[in-house]
Design a protein that fits this description.
- By secondary structure, this protein is α+β, with helices and mostly antiparallel strands.
- It folds into two domains: 68 residues, Dna Ligase, domain 1; 107 residues, D-amino Acid Aminotransferase, Chain A, domain 1.
- 28% of the residues lie in helices and 32% in strands.
- Strands 1, 6, 7, 8, 9, 10 and 11 form a seven-stranded antiparallel beta sheet that branches.
- Helix 4 crosses helix 6.
């Protein structure tokens, strides 16, 4: 079993054609001045054993200056399991979750639902066995409670495209044990992955 870092998981998804937020890795505060991403930033602690970053205070949002970025880095480097920090462009929109889970009966199943820190508490998630087409992607989205909250705020076509892409990935890469894309942020214009966790067999 191979547990990938967030950066490796995102690189993997980028190669598979998913849209990932602009990001850079830094190892020390002195590297902040070389980052070529426009403010505001999100900064996250990264390491193979760091999961559920928001729950443990390992994400700092809306960083607007180098001084704020240095303070954020100095705070994040004290996170248990810290290896590096990820600096990322800030994306605004609705937080949703996409994923792949390996099941004993059916192999890889795909997942969609309301994302963010309360995923496990809210359990607003639905599953399908791939392959799925456009109509099945639509039905999958409509099954969730979050659908009524978001349908007029997001680009539904982009969301369906990402679900179909996820379905193809689940069929193509049978060695995926677990993939959590939480969140993918979707607004009226685009869908962008801002965090991912990937476990390969």
């Amino acid at each position: 079993m191979k547990n990938l870092t967030e950066k490796s998981a995102e690189d993997f998804l980028e190669k598979e054609g998913f849209n990932i937020a602009k990001r850079e890795l830094i190892n020390k505060a002195s590297e902040i001045s070389k980052v070529k991403i426009s403010f505001p930033w999100a900064m996250k602690a990264s390491g193979k054993n760091i999961n559920h970053k928001k729950n443990i205070g390992a994400v700092i949002l809306n960083i607007k200056s180098q001084k704020e970025a240095e303070a954020a880095f100095n705070k994040l480097k004290n996170t248990d399991g810290f290896e590096q920090a990820i600096i990322q462009e800030m994306i605004l929109g609705e937080e949703l979750i996409l994923g792949i889970k390996k099941t004993q009966e059916f192999g890889n199943a795909i997942m969609f639902g309301k994302g963010g820190v309360d995923v496990e508490k809210e359990k607003d998630i639905t599953f399908r066995i791939p392959p799925i087409n456009n109509e099945e992607a639509e039905a999958m989205i409509a099954e969730t409670k979050v659908y009524n909250e978001i349908k007029n705020k997001i680009n539904l076509k982009e969301l369906k495209t990402n679900l179909i892409k996820l379905s193809k990935l689940a069929e193509k890469r049978k060695n995926i044990q677990e993939l959590d894309i939480n969140p993918i942020i979707i607004n009226k214009d685009k869908a962008v992955i801002v965090d991912a966790r990937l476990v390969l067999e």
